[in-house]
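BUG-284 | component: ligand-complex export | severity: low

The export step for zinc ion jobs runs without errors, but we want the raw record kept on the ticket for reference. Input record follows.
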Amino acid sequence: MYSCMLSFDVEDWFQVENLKAGIDRSSWDSRELRVERNMDRILQILSDHQTRATFFVLGWIARRCPALIKRIAQQGHEIASHGQDHYLLGELSPEAFYNDITSSTALLEDLTGQKMNGFRAPSFSITDWAIPLLKKAGFLYDSSYFYNPYHSRYGKLTVPPQPSGQRSGIIPLQEKFYEVALPSLSFMGGVIPWGGGGYFRLYPFRIFCAGVKRILKERGDFLFYMHPWEIDPGQPRISGIKKSYAFRHYYGLSKAEGKLSRLLGQFSFVPIQTVLEERMTNVQ
Ligand SMILES: [Zn+2]
């Protein structure tokens, strides 16, 4: 029985929402592409630990680095979609969103030969109207719901109440469609995000692992996420960003690669699809 799921959002440092105030979208093409080098380091760490993962690939990256996406797929990893141009769902009409996911899916399926089953919304900006469109486009799951009352940008999704009372893990949303939600830890009546990313860079390693163990004990599964730019302390520094955003983006970059490697040594991870298939077989 597998229970720890590993995921990466494949995008570059200049596409991150926290840096938006200092980086205009129109400048993306002239920015230094660092994703390929960072991804190769991640692929090496995964290979060293004989671990496979799910990669939510941005269509924009797939267009510019097709060989990278093929390389990830050839190494046995699951390729999934992170949309085309990293627009938050609230910035798109339902029609524009549908065009975005169908065009990026066609590109990724063409490159990898894999069917796209999973989707993750940019900055976890999922919203209720997107679910039937994802199902219509052929997806089997969304992995964007991150219950966090302190983060205004994260999306809002109506999820059915779970027997455990928690709002993370694999949640059936519709017939043959699932939400694979990011985990949080309940603590002193509150909720602390515990899925990875900036939270993983911020929390001391041992404390993070203790939280993972507690989540596994309470609900039986855990989902981790990270971005290739998070292991890149040499990335260009952008000024003119709100202090809290700059902190979220730049904190702990130099230690993140080592921490990721240690995490893979502590827990046994698999792609999301592996756990989902197992769960669906048990349900039938
Ligand atoms: Zn993203």
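Assignee comment: Attached the raw record above. The CA atoms of residues 54 and 78 lie 5 Å apart.
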